Amino acid sequence: MFDTRELGRRPGAMKRLSREVESPGDLGVEFIKVPDGATIELDLRLESVMEGVLVTGTARAPVTGECVRCLEPLDQRVEADFQEMFSYPEADDRGRPVAEPGEDEEDEDTLFLEGDLFDLEPVLRDAVVLALPLQPVCRVDCPGLCPDCGARLADDPEHAHEDAVDIRWAALQDLAGTMKDGEKDNEPRTDGDDSQEK
């Protein structure tokens, strides 16, 4: 929870702060995540406006996971920018026109101050998860793994196999080989016969 009392509900008042918070856990996608309990660095700017407090910030956190190409462990950092309005609770009740149909859906997404406090966790969670790469790689040009034997190609750039035949096509390859042999057997002989006739 963050306190906004210093702003005093004076539109135009602003406060900057930096803080380190512990990861709330479960911040991640399939191949990469912020470790549970990791330290997230926050740089925030709180601005008082008529409707509430506008929070603009940047979050920086360590992330761990594995490369989607070679499956090697990853240790990187992610940076996420966010901006969110936290409305005063009474702004929901006073000085507001009657809601039009469909406006209720927008109300569900509105975040409110609790007294003079606001909870940044849902905003932080959305911002960090959206900033994570869906397909993290250990390096941009990671060649991945050999599709035949699973060897890591970055360790052996010259790694190669003889052309492997898909087992589903092996019978056809045998048939093609048999047909070529048969054609050779049926070819007319031209080993010097013409020279004898002359």
How would you portray this structure in words?
This protein is α+β, with helices and mostly antiparallel strands and 198 residues long. Helices cover 20% and strands 30% of the residues. The protein has helices at 103-109, 121-131, 170-186, 193-197, and strands at residues 2-3, 14-22, 27-28, 32-34, 39-48, 52-66, 73-87, 111-112, 117-118. Strands 2, 3, 4, 5, 6, 7 and 8 form a seven-stranded mixed sheet that branches. A two-stranded antiparallel sheet has the order 1-9. β7, α1 (103-109) and β8 (111-112) form a beta-alpha-beta unit. It holds the Pfam family YceD.
List the helices and strands and how they pair.
Layout: E1 2-3, E2 14-22, E3 27-28, E4 32-34, E5 39-48, E6 52-66, E7 73-87, H1 103-109, E8 111-112, E9 117-118, H2 121-131, H3 170-186, H4 193-197
Parallel strand pairs: 7-8
Antiparallel strand pairs: 1-9, 2-5, 3-4, 4-6, 5-6, 6-7
InterPro entries: YceD
Region (Disordered): 1-21, 176-198
Protein name: DUF177 domain-containing protein
Report mean pLDDT, rounded to a whole number: 80
Count of runs of 4 or more consecutive helical residues: 4
Query: What is the overall shape?
Result: elongated
SS-based structural class? alpha+beta
Query: Into which percent range does the helicity of residues fall?
Result: 10-25%
Say what oligomer this is.
Answer: single chain
List segments where confidence is low: pLDDT < 50 over at least 5 consecutive residues.
Answer: 92-106
Largest sheet geometry = 7 strands, mixed
Helix-strand pattern = EEEEEEEHEEHHH
Work out the number of β strands. Answer: 9
Could you tell me how far the N terminus lies from the C terminus, measured between alpha carbons in angstroms? 107 Å
User: How much of the sequence is in beta strands?
Assistant: 25-35%
Radius of gyration, CA atoms, in whole angstroms:
33 Å
Region (Disordered): 1-21, 176-198
Organism: Streptomyces oryzae
Pfam families: YceD (PF02620)
InterPro entries: YceD (IPR003772)
